[in-house]
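Meet today's protein:

…
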Amino acid sequence: MLDEEKTNEENTEERHYLDYPLQMEMPLETGHAKAILEGLLFIVGDDGITVEQAMSALEISRERVEILFDDLMKEYASDDNRGIEIANYGGTYRFLSKAIVHDYAKKLFQLNKQATLSQAALETLAIIAYKQPITRVEIEEIRGVGADMMLRKLMARDLIRESGRSEAPGRPILYEVTDEFMNSFKLLSLNELPELPEFGEGEESDELFGRE
């Protein structure tokens, strides 16, 4: 009789444990954690994820986050069957297309030369046209958002190009507009640009870069 009562008590404790799994949550298994980080990187896009954000989201230590990101970076970089890789810019991780994709991206965008540029693309082009040569960081300071992915897209469309490196610490890449930009917007020289508008005012940017 006592054995039967003891068994019932054990079963009751087990049911209580199953009813409250969050109270007994186990640490994320490595493969599961990397899958979550991979999904988060895809969701956030060009904004990327910082180490601190990953620590808070996964509730794990900085050391483990850095190890997981390092593993993911190596896996993507070494896999020739993947067209994307993970880059780390000052502690912010994001997906980027590999160099092998770039020539094909240019062909893709050139298939539709008259495709409408997004508001973000127009504003980025305006900043480069007025301020060139200019670095990515300077563009981001003006727009207030990351510009790495947008710069890649504009380069793929041959609207901007690299024009050397700045003398600032780290020797960041400088960008300028191309002849394709001049042809697309029917400009003989940058002197034909109107007076510098207030960036972020959508109506002014649309007027400046509106296509016929």
In short: The longest strand covers residues 84-89. Confidence is low (pLDDT under 50) at residues 12-26, 201-212. The chain has two domains: 2-97, 101-209. The radius of gyration is 25 Å.
